[in-house]
């Protein structure tokens, strides 16, 4: 049995879409949609980790828990590590789940699925992926997982890239922004400097792979829509608007 703590990193200074944590979707800031999905998953306590007083106020006004962190973190998992130490100084939670704050469409059941690889004691970090569509393979905003199948619907990650990889015929996999860290693995990760491939690809998970840590991914049927760009945000808004119209 694991005892997860879910931490959602959220900052105002996103390089590709500044302020996206507070971007409205169906009349509410995106961070509240992510928080709602994390609470609905019911796998453990949930908190938002942010360097923004404005984000913290909005989360707390909605009844959520927020913890203020420093503003100089290299990536979201570094922010999550700081927040976990503040939220759980006695280390009562042995798994820390980083649910990235740009995943407002994630199904609540996906968080429970992300924990499954941790039943294997050799896995340091667990994550999620799904088959990539044809249009996603060449899109640098869609991160691809390259891995080997180790069990039905589970892969061991060998690499992550923004490039259309692997080459040749066969499936491609769209990585989903969720990381379930063993507590010791998160501490080790946060104690390492950003790695060369992490910096080059702008993918934090490569720091773990370069350090020899093992990441396994559960494969979902479909990738939830993440928000990296203004186009992603508009598509999600359009889908939510259509959903609301269909319910009337």
SSE inventory with pairings:
Elements: E1 4-10, E2 24-25, E3 28-29, H1 30-41, E4 46-50, H2 53-61, E5 66-68, H3 76-87, E6 95-99, H4 108-115, E7 125-131, E8 144-151, E9 154-161, E10 173-182, H5 183-190, H6 196-201, H7 205-210, E11 215-219, H8 230-247
Parallel strand pairs: 1-4, 1-6, 4-5, 7-11
Antiparallel strand pairs: 2-3, 6-10, 7-10, 8-9, 8-10, 9-11
Helix pairs in contact: 1-4
Entry keywords:
248 residues; Spore Coat Polysaccharide Biosynthesis Protein SpsA, Chain A; two-stranded antiparallel ribbon; 32% helix
For the record, give the distance between the C-alpha atoms at the N and C termini, rounded to a whole number: 43 Å
Summed up, the domain count is: 1
Question: Rg to the nearest angstrom?
Answer: 17 Å
Total number of strands: 11
Helix content: 25-40%
CATH superfamily: Spore Coat Polysaccharide Biosynthesis Protein SpsA, Chain A
CATH topology: Spore Coat Polysaccharide Biosynthesis Protein SpsA, Chain A
Query: Describe the biggest sheet?
Result: 5 strands, mixed, barrel
Can you count the helices?
A: 8
Structural category is: alpha/beta
Name of the CATH first level? Alpha Beta
Low-confidence stretches: none
Roughly what fraction of the amino acids lie in strands? 25-35%
Silhouette = globular
Mean pLDDT, as a whole number? Answer: 92
Helix-strand pattern = EEEHEHEHEHEEEEHHHEH
Q: Strand order of the main beta sheet, please?
A: 7-10-8-9-11
CATH architecture tag:
Alpha-Beta Complex
